[in-house]
Amino acid sequence: MSDKRQRARVQGSWAKPPAKGQSGPMGFVPSNAASRSNTASGSWGFGNQKASEAFKFHQPTKPVRDVPKEKVIEQAGVYEISHGPSGVSRLRLWPGFITTEEADWMFSKLLEELPWSKKTNYRQGEAYDEPRLTCWYGELPYTYAHSTIPANNQWHPLLVTLREAVEQSSSCTFNSLLCNLYRNGRDSIGWHSDDEASLGPKPTIASLSLGDTRVFSLRKQPPPEDNGDYTYVERISVPLSHGTLLLMEGATQDDWQHQVAKEYHDRGPRINLTFRTIHPEPEGHRPGTKI
Ligand SMILES: O=C(O)CCC(=O)C(=O)O
What we know:
cytoplasm, binds 2-oxoglutaric acid, dioxygenase, alpha+beta, 16 strands, 2 domains, mRNA N1-methyladenosine dioxygenase activity
C-alpha cells in the first residue's frame, strides 16, 4: 500500500502528510506529541487552558428529558393510546373501509354536490378564514372557534348511506356530520380537540377519508407542571388514505389534540367526513366552549 493510501485508511481525511524529515514510529507522529496531548489548543478555541479544566463535568441542574419518538399507526386495529385519570384513549383504524372503486365515485360526487363554503372563525376578537372548506349536517347548529354553523337537515342521500354504514360497523349512532374539504396540501386544520360541551363527555368521533392521503397527527396534552409546553409529549401520526375509517373514542378528546398540518409538496384534494353526536348546549353555557 502506498504511504498516501495507508494514511487515509489509518487517519481518515484528517491525516496530514508528514513534515519533511519527521520520524515517528508510523513515520508521521510529531516528536512533541506527548506534551501537546494534555493541552487543548488553537483551533478548538480553548487557548492554553488545561484540558482537564475545559472538560470538567457539571451535574445538570434539571433532569435530562428525552423527546419521545413519534409513533406511526397504519395497520388496521384497535389502539389504546393512553390510560390516564380521565380513562382510556382509543383509536380504531380501518383502512379500506370503502373499496377504492366506490371511494373514487363517492369522492367525485361529494366534491361536486356538497354546499362547500369557507367559515370565518375568531381568535381573541380577530376574524380569520379557515384554511379549508366545510359544510355541516345536523338538527342543531354547531359552534366552535367562536362562530356558529346553522342547523342543516338537508342530508345528501350519499351521506345518509355512509352514516348508516359507519353506524353499523362502529355500533355507535351519530346525528351530525362536519365535512372538511382540503383543496390541496396548503389546506389544513390546526391543533385542537373536539371537546365542546355540545359533543357531550367522552365523545366518539368517526372520521372517513376520501381522496389524497393526508397525515393525521395527535399529540398528548402536557402535564400541568409543563405549563402548556408540548416539547416532551407523546406524538402519533396516522396516514389517512382514500376509503379509511378512523374512530376516536374514550378520553381521546380530553387527553389528546389532533391536526392535519399543511404539507409543502403536491397534494390533491381530500374530503374528510367527521360523524358526531351533538346535544343541545347546556343551559346558561356559552356555545362552543368546554364544560
Ligand atoms: O381532516 C381530518 O382528518 C380531521 C378533521 C378534524 O380534525 C375535525 O373536523 O375536527
